[in-house]
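Predict the 3D structure for this chain.
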Amino acid sequence: MKWFKRILLSLLILLGIIIIGSWLTLQLTPKPVSLFVRKQFDTSQKTQVYDRPNFFNENMQEITITTDEKYPSENENNILDVYAPKNLKENVPVLFWVHGGAYVGGDKRDCKDYLTMLCAQTKTIVVNLNYALAPEAKHPTPVQQLNEAIVAIKQSKLRIDWDNIRLGGDSAGAQIASEYLLSLTNNNLQVKNHLKPALESSQVRKFISLSGLLEPDKFTEIDDTVSSFLFKQSGWAYFGDKNFSNREEIKNLSLAKHAKEFSQDFFFTDGNQKTFTKQMDKTVDALKKQNLSVTKISYDKPELGHEYQFDFNKPEAEKTFKKLVHFLNS
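Done. Predicted structure below.
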């Protein structure tokens, strides 16, 4: 039986080495987990990410889509799609959209159907951009790339009313878009982010956050242990600091802390389970105290998770979409 005991001991030692090695890896680098999270967001093998409502096909006939246009950037993943209403006879508003994915994953394809319907029902040109992902790219690269995409669109021949711009995003994309909005009035942030904005704050009329991360230092404050761990690793990968949640410069990216600097109309929605509901409520309260126009769509029941708004199997998703269309058309 000695040989059996030796094999068992060897297996236990090997298991111990694997466990300790894995623990040490997680303490030293966020890369393995962030790449795992990226894989969970990967929809490249899906021809359709979410179920479509009945009106999708009709809306699809009303627009044209130009895909995978490159915008000038020193960073990777610098491509965008443009959705435009057919037969435009005058300049129309433009919406610049930033997809989610915890900074480490996601793709513009995830929002394609949703933005198709928004374009058709609001007669708005929509620019849906990709950006370089962490851990290969760090903050503030996506913010800079949003500016680069705006520069590229300004140089195009699209019929855009440049005094009627909308910015928005979902999940981490909402944070990237909100940081860009903040930079339009915050010179210190422009210097820190090496950013020369292509827009004036007065040109941006509306901001949209769908299940948005609105306080990036509280990325891990979510009522789900597994998601909290994954988001901590993703935030570390993006901000380049394991203790990013304690850094003042990250805390200062909160929309609520800069409510006095804004003049835009705002639209917020989020689920009520395992998402950023508390951040949304705090941000809405801060903006309303400044007498800004704020639309908040939320539901106490049924249970709705992160990014619920894209899932048209849920009646609440369609209700929210209609209210967003009204917000953009008003």
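Residues 14 and 28 are 21 Å apart (CA to CA).
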